[in-house]
Amino acid sequence: DAKTTQPPSMDCAEGRAANLPCNHSTISGNEYVYWYRQIHSQGPQYIIHGLKNNETNEMASLIITEDRKSSTLILPHATLRDTAVYYCIVRVGGGYQKVTFGTGTKLQVIP
Amino acid sequence: GAGVSQSPRYKVAKRGQDVALRCDPISGHVSLFWYQQALGQGPEFLTYFQNEAQLDKSGLPSDRFFAERPEGSVSTLKIQRTQQEDSAVYLCASSLGPSSGGPGAQYFGPGTRLLVL
Question: pLDDT tens, A50-91?
Fold first, then answer.
């Protein structure tokens, strides 16, 4: 698995955009970028994934740099319920590959 | 539809006791994963099943840990002779499987919090 690097913590004001960075400089050509989040006392929740194009769904947007060595997860209007640990993971899209979560970024949304 | 469910949600065991943790994956999901999560850490991989076959058990920390999925649906993680260092949250996740061609997103249950005294 390619390793990822994330800041350990970030704060964001409620209603503002939260931009969570992730570095994955050793990503392989067939590896996708996945984002999960884990709200306190719950299991991780899948958010979004992408290969090289930017992606958007009802939860978030994912911006991947052209060289694919880094990405940013964007929560456009953060709410208090978005306070969680956010994990950036790289892995192949299909098939089996062991997933390594790391320690993620603790996002605190402040009222 | 129903998500991944796990039982019990909380388990307190005395050191040396055997425990069994159950996971009910999403119906039709071929792949099933078990993770261990220590306080303040990310989930750590334990083992992977594709249907009833256990294809990767490289993350199991010792031979006291055993997992099975005999009919390719429900899975049980068993820990024998529990030790205090086994205290953690045990997470189960399922996904459509490697042949689905899909994104491979894993869907997690709420976890079982195990405390060994």
Answer: 999 899 999 999 999 999 999 999 999 999 999 999 999 998
- Rounded Cα distance, B105 and A45, in Å: 9
Which residue, chain included where needed, has tokens 């006392």? A41
- Closest residue of chain A to B98, computed from CA coordinates: A95
Smallest CA–CA separation between B95 and chain A, in Å?
10
Q: How close A46 comes to chain B (CA, Å)?
A: 7
What pLDDT does residue B96 have?
85
**A36 in Cβ contact with B100 (< 8 Å):** no
Cβ–Cβ < 8 Å for B50, A91:
no
- Nearest CB partner across the interface for A93, out of B55, B104, B110: B104
For residue B103, what are the CA distances in angstroms to A21, B98, B117? 21, 9, 40
Residues 6+ apart with CB under 8 A from A52: A64, A68
Q: Confidence band (pLDDT; 50, 70, 90) for B31?
A: very high
pLDDT at position A29 is 87
d(CA A97, CA A34): 13
Q: What are the b/e assignments for A81-96, b being 16+ CB within 10 Å?
A: ebbbbbbbbbbebbeb
Cα B49–chain centre separation: 10
Nearest residue in chain B measured CA to CA from A49: B103
User: Per this entry, what is the length of chain A?
Assistant: 111
